[in-house]
Design a protein that fits this description.
Two copies of one chain form a homodimer. Chain A is of the alpha/beta class and about 425 residues long. Chain A folds into two domains: about 1-60 and about 365-405, Urease, subunit C, domain 1 (Roll), CATH 2.30.40.10; about 60-350, Metal-dependent hydrolases (TIM Barrel), CATH 3.20.20.140. Chain A is built from 16 helices and 16 strands. In chain A, strands 1, 2, 3, 4, 5, 14, 15 and 16 form an eight-stranded mixed β-sheet that branches. In chain A, strands 6-7-8-9 form a four-stranded parallel β-sheet. The first copy, chain A, has a four-stranded parallel β-sheet with strand order 10-11-12-13. In chain A, strand 2 and strand 3 (about 30-35) form a beta hairpin. In chain A, helix 3 packs parallel to helix 4 (about 125-135), helix 12 crosses helix 13 (about 335-340) and helix 12 packs across helix 15 (about 380-390). The radius of gyration of chain A is 21 Å and the shape is globular. Chain A starts with a strand and ends with a helix.
Chain lengths: ~425, ~425
């Protein structure tokens, strides 16, 4: 199977941020096979997609999500975090079934594909159903059973959630032609005991699996750690040995300069979730400093009930704006840096060197944007235009593993009407 | 001419924030004639638009813009304000011709119509050409010749720019069936002398015209005023008598509590421009406080070279997010308040009680959004969905004065290809 994108403006996202005009890109099966002027042999039997007036770039990687929370989108907003979580979100989640999670994940995947996301990092529950949604839709994801437990331990060999995590990883890591990647996910230090985190860490190490964890999201979490453990959340997790494994640390809003040294030492990737951190009033993460210090900073939406969307272009936009405004420095987090967070840095965070950049040999996880819109005129600088002018809806084509999953409003692998119907049905039950 | 929107979800933006399900809205000529269940007589000879699965709301009012700066969109970003302005923006603007401004305004209008803006407040130069673009396109605007002058005065009777302002107002206020509204626009206290501001103020008073002015945008402006005049920018303009006239004060990032009392006393509307204030690192305006104190706060994009788009849904989104995040209070600027800033408060700022709310008798400045998209599912709360989940591109129809100006990607009054062509041509000359 060969597909040629003909005459595209290619934003490669490679190290030198090359932008190639009138460039052809050849996709063979699941990989980018060639770029530039193609020979007749290379073009032979290829399906040609005219990309004139279109921009081609790597698919976006959403570094932190709870996709099934689409069911709770715009359900409870503009309220205190504790009220939101304990009076609205948790009681509603208690009513979720596996089937709900399946349809809600598909809804989230539709939204992600339509706004240019080709891979997402998630932790939730009913993981078999999430895997099913990822496998069927064709998207790529790093998934994990998010676990909470405040038991004392030290023996967790019979712990239900830990065993679910292990079973999940053994069963599904590498599934769907490698599109499903597994991880272990101790939810956070305020929902897991230290012994439990260590038990999860040891299990993950045994399977050579990575970690996905919430870290230092709120001031309360930060201050409680200082009070309860005499150290910051980062130092606490560092001392538990969690960061010896490849770790994605979501939020990191309140991390100190010393914390960032520890994160850097261990190669931990932090995930910036600007919409969620602003909306829930968690604060503004020290992203400019982290980038300056050479940390790998990914970008994420967080769940759609604290955002309330899964549109990574909005996160890119926010990442390029809020640090300038809050620190009164217009040179912080430039357009290219914001885009890298959503592409190459995301790929690095999930340990994939074959994603996040358009270059021969890499996976064909690509998106195309329609430039023939007023907000892209004139196009003085495509990188600035992507960060400051674009909308998720500019995406007109999304490809994962060489397969087109979104094409000008249609979803070849998904039944849009059926998903909408099932979501309405689930909500009628959950919110009755 | 009668148009009926059949079966819409209507977000009225009235005082009680009524949301009407399966509601019909009758437009007769330029006005909303009726709402609710319509009689056969009312429906007689009406063009019927099926609004099932669509949301109808008042058109958005962009409270502060320099639309022709589309020509400089993404031209110079991620740099210091002074470098940006003096080394890049001003030299380029010096090369603008009236024809450039005409085409650049049309480009900006296209973008505004496609993202739901039906009225904008602007100050720029080559105003005859801006009026022409507004008149031809069908959009509504409050326009003013932005003037700068540091002469000492006191006699400005021969001043070219002041006389241009007067001529502009006399010639064009009320033009195009009242869609063009005039104003006087002393640019800012750092570009106009006190005597000059007073001369403009007096001229505006003579014609009973309103004022549009930049106020307290940056810390430098604030501190310079304290140093040079011994008072804040707001107190300085207050003492000059400027605020005795109906005034739209753009930015107000650094206003003090005492300043806000003065603004409130005079009924000055402040315009929040979150993207621009963040991108240029001006800061975060005290919007939550101003709303709490009962000031009229409008919402704007500022010019497309400091934003870099004219998409008011992004500004609504930012307004609902950044105050929560920067003040660590999730209750600040809720979704409804952010929407009001872009609708009713905008209407109040330009002195129009017949805009900004869907109710019989008001002008038919309406927009329709397509709700059949994944990010609007489920639709627990339409107001939250508009503020937190929507994109400008969800707008599928924009009507001004009862006339459809944007319809699912097409612009009945504008020649898209010609505008794009002329913009390319102008840029080739300006940036050669």
């Amino acid at each position: 199977m060969k597909i040629v994108f003909k005459n595209a403006l290619v934003v490669t996202m490679n190290e030198t941020m090359d932008i190639l005009k009138s460039c052809d890109v050849l996709v063979e099966n699941d990989r980018i096979a060639a770029m530039g002027a193609l020979s007749p042999e290379q073009m032979d039997k290829a399906k040609v997609i005219d990309a004139t007036g279109k921009l081609l770039m790597p698919g976006l990687i959403n570094g932190h999500n709870h996709a099934p929370m689409t069911l709770l989108r715009n359900f409870a907003d503009d309220m205190n975090l504790q009220t939101w979580l304990f009076e609205h979100i948790f009681p509603a989640e208690d009513k979720f079934t596996g089937e709900d999670v399946y349809w809600a994940t598909l809804l989230g995947i539709m939204e992600m594909l339509a706004s240019g996301t080709t891979c997402f990092v998630d932790m939730y529950f009913f993981m078999d159903e999430m895997v099913k949604a990822v496998a069927e839709s064709g998207i790529r994801a790093q998934l994990s059973r998010g676990v909470t437990c405040n038991d004392a331990g030290p023996d967790f060999s019979q712990d239900k959630k830990l065993n679910e995590s292990i079973d999940f990883y053994k069963k599904w890591h590498g599934a769907a032609d490698g599109r499903v990647m597994g991880a272990f996910a101790p939810h956070a230090i305020y929902t897991c005991s230290g012994n439990y985190i260590r038990a999860i860490r040891d299990a993950a190490e045994k399977y050579n699996a990575p970690i996905h964890v919430h870290v230092d999201e709120t001031r309360v979490e930060h201050e409680d750690a200082l009070k309860n453990y005499g150290k910051t959340p980062v130092k606490y997790l560092y001392d538990l040995g969690l960061f010896d494994l490849r770790t994605i640390a979501a939020h990191c809003v309140w991390v100190t300069p010393e914390d960032r040294l520890l994160l850097k030492e261990k190669g931990v990737s932090m995930v910036h979730n600007p919409s969620s951190n602003l909306k829930l009033a968690s604060g503004v993460a020290p992203v400019a400093q982290a980038l300056e210090e050479g940390l790998n900073v990914m970008l994420g939406t967080d769940g759609p009930s604290s955002n309330n969307n899964l549109n990574m272009f909005e996160e890119i936009h926010l990442a390029a704006l809020i640090h300038k405004g809050s620190a009164l420095d217009p040179l912080l987090v430039n357009a290219g840096e914001a885009l890298r967070m959503a592409t190459v840095n995301g790929a690095r965070g999930i340990g994939r060197e074959d994603l996040g950049v358009i270059r021969p040999g890499n996976k064909a996880d690509l998106i195309m944007l329609d430039l023939e819109k007023p907000h892209f005129k004139p196009l003085h600088n495509p990188v600035s235009a992507l960060a400051y002018s674009s909308q998720g809806a500019d995406v007109c084509m999304t490809m994962v593993d060489g397969r087109i999953l979104y094409d000008h409003g249609s979803f070849p692998t998904l039944d849009r009407e059926k998903i909408f119907y099932q979501i309405d049905k689930a909500c009628a039950r959950i919110f009755s």
